[in-house]
Amino acid sequence: MKRTLLLLTIVLMNYAAFAQTSRDVKGVVKDSTGTSIIAATVKYIVGTDTVFTRTDIDGAFTLKSVKSSTFLITISSLGYQTLNKRFLYKDGETPIELEPFVLKAQNRMLNEVVILGIGGSQKKTTLTGSVAQIGAEDLMKSPTPNPTNSLIGRLPGLLAVQTSGQPGSDASTIKIRGVATYGANSNAIVVVDGIQRPSFADVDPNEIETVTILKDASSTAIYGLKGANGVIVITTKAGKIGKPKVYYSGGYAAQTYTGLAVGLPAFENATLLNQSYLNDGKPAPFSAVEIQKFADKSDPIGYPDVQWFDYLTKKYYSQTTHNINITGGTKVAKYFVSAGYAFQDGIFKKFDSPYGINTVPNYNRYNFRTNVDLTLNQDFVVGIKLGGRFGTRYQPAGLLSSSAFSYDTIEGMISRILQVPAYAYPVTLPDGRITANPNVGTNIWNPYAVLTRFGTRNDYANTIESTFNLDYKLGDLTKGLAFTTVFGYDSYYNNVERRNANWAAYVYNAQTGAVTLSTDTRNRNEPLGGVVGGGVTTGSTNMTIRSGFTYLRNFGRHNINATLLGTRELIRTTGETTFTAPPRAQQGVVSRVTYDFDQDRYIVEASASYNGSENFAPGLRYGFFPSVSAGWTLTNEPFWKKNTILTYFKLKGSYGLVGNDNVSNNRFLFLTTFSANGSAPFGNPLSITNFPTLFIGDSALGNDEVTWETGTKRNLAFEARLFKDALKLNVDVFEEDRKNILTPSLSGSALFGHSYPLLNKGEVNNKGYEIEMDYQGKI
User: Fold this and answer.
1) C-beta separation of 690 from 664 below 8 A
2) Which CATH superfamily is domain 19-103 in?
3) What is the CATH number of domain 109-237?
4) pLDDT classification of 325: cutoffs 50, 70, 90
5) Entry pTM
């Protein structure tokens, strides 16, 4: 009887189990604005069993054949706080329609993932190096068509200085953590979408997703020979799964100069000039009668008072930007397409010219970008990024010269204008003829004539930047292993067209009223001629390939993230000489391994690169650049009591060696150059005599041991978040010892018989600290 009851009980239990209702559970995920969140991760958890799914294009998800009446739903998405909800339903309810899940946005979305360029990306919590990053929203707060100027004051450790306001040539020079070398180059390198590129100054800010700066050895050692001055990593926008969305942005702004040392009016200028002559015991150049005429302005032709800068320039000049982009995609293909236009007006006013010269400088730029990502299957992803721009920069200009005050540039023209005293000459004679005054200096020509009668300059810049990337997961071989390759093919070409003209200038004698033609080269009227030399075209074609493997895997509480890549770069230029025609090449191997334990409680990272350059002597072309770093997240320790005051605290430090191969503007310094000579120096070094001698001698002695600069960098830092993450505080203390800086020798050439070559003997110690505070909350 007992056996019969036991068997009946088992049968009833099994029947009850099989009688449970199998049903679908449906839901939708949205943000606080009601917008659907696409590709959010949905976890269905019953006991120790977990089922994953993702939301579709409408933010919806469906869990098939759910049998349990009690279950936990966990939803997460990048940039949002994870949401957990537990549910209990009766067996008779089928299907189950859950209430919409609303995810709250995280205030620090960008801090979740940091882009490292060659090293891919990394979670912010696992970083042990010194890195800073901003996103598109912050970048667009500065209404400028040049993104280098948008970075000023926005990232700790970044120094951006705008040295020119010329339309189309107003990019800031960017340095990271000051200047650690007095060598030929102290600027940070630029990496756009994983490929090193000359600049990002003309990239449309609407195309940029993030800007990251890498500052210490831990983050830059992977760049080896190029990492010593820091790295700027630009990531352009990618498509997102969803219906096509069209965005337009446009802006208008007025520019002005911050301050210039403008000359004094004629009366004050002439008075002070008289005083300076008298102080030197010389007769004053202006009589009391002439000084009075400057004061009462009774003779504006003989005794003019022309504030040339104010007369020729505008206080405000405009700039406009327009951009339209489309983004969207499916699970297979995502796209981002952008087209932009930027215009910048110039500082000079509009004047009539007898030669048809436009006196107002200007700049027009057209940008386009197409980024496409193709997910061919769950293991195979292909990306194509094609960006380009065409810019035309125009200015009234004069003759090209090597002078720092060349009339060929806007800066040179303004410098010349500021050199002209207000009393020099009137703008024109009453009959319209151009005036001159040989007594105010050499080549101090009438600025009005320079603008309207000297010539023009047109610069055309054509740029194509293409990036092709492939990622293939090799999970069948080893879980977490993937093959990756990136190929960049870029074209940068510029054409400069100069056209020159001339004018007849006349000297007015204030005493007699006589007018005579100038005796210098400004003695005839000549309209614009043809393009000088047919135009000058310069540029380069750059090819970069990087291939290797990545490994990302967790073993319980242990997490490994590793990268091993081979790199090669080839640059062909338009050079025609022995030193400029050969292509530039670099190649090497880079690696990085990151280990973190127990949800980023302890983190250790090691990076190394072995790469070389053709610019150094055989046998000395390759170098090894290692770094190590570690981090300790104190608030992840079991003994740490959770509180609302100090919610996050991490200590970190790094040490490593990096290099800078851009040590000179000249190439192949290990080679000695020779040239024909017609004389040779002999005699006392203090009184050398050159005797006629025919010989082929060296004109520049080579240094066969020339090498790159090296920087040993140290960094100690902590990151803290306080008051429920409302306050973020980052503090870094850093130091760098830069060595092997190329330095000229100061003596010995006469006695030695040669000019000494440049030697790697310079050293600089650079150190400092950075403090970054960010408060987001209500006060």
Assistant:
1) no
2) Immunoglobulins (2.60.40.10)
3) 2.170.130.10
4) very high
5) 0.82
